[in-house]
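Reminder to self: tokens first, then the designed residues, so the page reads top to bottom the way the pipeline ran.
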């Protein structure tokens, strides 16, 4: 039974909203990046693959330091870590506006990646702690801020790049987004010790939860963690390739500027795809999180991962058709974004919530590891002269992940939790 002391000033739903807001403000660091690639290339003449290394560095620093940031969150609370992250995110984009060399672009990517990781890991970890009864939905809604947060700003960013240049756009959005994160972070708090037990008292739950609390060091010694990690790498790899390369893909298939009419709107195919993709990439996270709260984590993974595999294959076949490009990229992002709710929820179910931020953060480093696949995939594309092999590889990873979820992870995790009860 909850008492008054368990309720923060804004309530737990208020804490969830603050997390979503912070995530929305850092979303453009990843999902808006594709709009800047061609303008940077046009200004400096740098190779596209060399420019995209900045994206890889961003993802690496955004993910691989999250366990450390999560450790600070679990011990000192979410506020200080999120303020720190918001400041670094702003600094990173301001540096991008002045970067006149690849090395400076890479340093800026590293700084903004560290900041984004601090915000991301904190907000997801805090949501997992405040909603032990709705972990999938809460993690999904928080991650939706990161997935869909850039949807409202795709058109303004594209317009500002066209009218004022990409450097001015980096500067304005970097300062604005950083300030909002810092202000929202000042209101974040963590639940008191024992909150989960009081919250779940007398409530039935679909997803079996371990009663033991595992530290990150203990967690990495279990086979279950490494199966989750490997699946996360494969699922994240294809989605990151699409997120970083959507504009170049549209350009190479000659559909980027072709008008598409849908839902009463007419926009260039690339702009339409970016907007819809961001919305669907956000919606999918609470949606599949909610589904997993009711039918189980692995069952939901199987459905989503199979859809992803089919969507990527179809995109490779029909991307030259503007309407198909818009709809199929939407399907790909819809079936990809749920990994950011399913994996942290599964991790916390399996290894306990006491170290939720650090443990989920350690699993989240798989996204950084998968970013190392991006230069490899782009090199394959450059060598082959087309995107088909890349699409085949990405879809194959999705189908393999679905197979592992059904035949490996599900029985392995059931045995593991049975031993932990």
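Designed residues (421 positions):
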């Amino acid at each position: 039974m909850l008492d008054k002391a368990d309720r923060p000033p804004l309530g737990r739903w208020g804490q969830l909203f603050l997390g979503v807001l912070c995530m929305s403000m850092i979303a453009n660091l990843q999902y808006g990046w594709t709009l800047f690639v061609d303008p940077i290339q046009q200004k400096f003449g740098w190779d596209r693959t060399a420019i995209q290394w900045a994206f890889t560095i961003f993802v690496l620093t955004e993910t691989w330091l999250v366990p450390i940031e999560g450790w600070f969150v679990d011990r000192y609370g979410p506020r200080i870590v999120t303020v720190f992250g918001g400041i670094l995110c702003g600094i990173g984009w301001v540096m991008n506006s002045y970067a006149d060399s690849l090395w400076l672009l890479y340093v800026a990517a590293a700084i903004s990646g560290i900041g984004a990781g601090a915000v991301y890991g904190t907000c997801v970890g805090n949501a997992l702690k405040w909603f032990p009864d709705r972990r999938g939905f809460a993690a999904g809604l928080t991650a939706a801020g990161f997935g869909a947060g850039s949807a409202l700003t795709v058109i303004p960013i594209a317009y500002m790049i066209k009218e004022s240049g990409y450097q001015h756009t980096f500067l304005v959005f970097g300062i604005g987004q950083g300030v909002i994160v810092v202000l929202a972070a000042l209101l974040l708090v963590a639940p008191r010790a024992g909150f989960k037990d009081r919250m779940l008292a007398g409530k039935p739950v679909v997803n079996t939860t371990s009663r033991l609390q595992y530290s990150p060091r203990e967690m990495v010694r279990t086979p279950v963690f490494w199966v989750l990690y490997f699946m996360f790498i494969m699922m994240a790899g294809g989605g990151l390739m699409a997120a970083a390369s959507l504009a170049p893909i549209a350009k190479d298939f000659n559909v980027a500027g072709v008008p598409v009419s849908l839902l009463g709107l007419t926009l260039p195919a690339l702009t339409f795809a970016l907007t819809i993709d961001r919305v669907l990439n956000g919606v999918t996270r609470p949606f599949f999180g909610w589904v997993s709260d009711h039918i189980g984590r692995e069952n939901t993974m199987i459905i989503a991962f199979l859809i992803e595999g089919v969507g990527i294959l179809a995109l490779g076949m029909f991307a030259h058709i503007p309407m198909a490009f818009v709809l199929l990229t939407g399907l790909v992002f819809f079936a990809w974004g749920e990994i950011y709710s399913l994996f942290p929820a599964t991790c916390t179910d399996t290894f306990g919530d006491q170290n939720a931020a650090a443990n989920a953060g350690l699993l989240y480093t798989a996204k950084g590891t998968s970013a190392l696949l991006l230069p490899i995939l782009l090199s394959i594309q450059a060598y082959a002269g087309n995107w088909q092999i890349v699409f085949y590889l990405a879809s194959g990873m999705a189908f393999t992940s679905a197979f592992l979820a059904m035949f490996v992870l599900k029985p392995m995790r059931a045995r593991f939790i049975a031993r932990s009860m």
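The radius of gyration is 20 Å.
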